[in-house]
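Notes from the 1:1 (GR / supervisor)

We went over the backlog. Supervisor wanted to see one worked example end to end before approving the batch request, so GR pasted a single chain during the call. The sequence is below; no edits were made to it. Supervisor asked that the structure be written out right there so they could see what the output format looks like.
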Amino acid sequence: TMRDIEANPLIKHANAYIWSKISHLDHPENLVLTNPTSKAEGKTLQKTKETNFEKAKIDETDRYIAEILSQKSRTPFIKIAKELNISNKKVIQRYNKLRGNVLTTSTITVNLNKLGYKALAHLLIKSANKSKVPEISAKLLQIPNLITILEIFGDYDLFPIVALRDYEALFKLKEQISTIQGIEQTDIILAKPYYSWPLNVFASLL
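Structure output shown during the call:
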């Protein structure tokens, strides 16, 4: 909780930002893979299909299967069957029930560092008018290498993440943001690139 965090003597102040949307967080279609110094194959990353949030009734076995596949989507069914001491047929039946409801997609993760990206720009954006947030978000998504964008509650309205190759890319990003009307404030936090992206942020909920 916030009280526990702020009770830490090493922490001076903490702000909490709550996600207002949990779908379409990642945008792999924006990631530019053309890097002459990269040894990675130039595969095209496809946009994730819209998630089906239809509720599914699941038991502990379903939960274990979902947890295993959320960590490694290509785990063989026969391996899961042996681990859970059930038949391979039952694993397949349960997987088919979970697919599209709990297991919404299987995806390939990429190492951004090996693709030539040296940093991530975590942006905290405050709009001048909250009704313009969808419009601002749409314009931000036109920026190359903007790989994640979240709508949030708190002091800011949007939390985009942009992959950067060098300082020149950071300066260009600042210029691109400055041309978008309706943005009142932008703060940038630089971080190391992800070694496995997209992140599996919901795996711990299983």
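Supervisor's comment: The chain has six helices and five strands.
Batch request approved.
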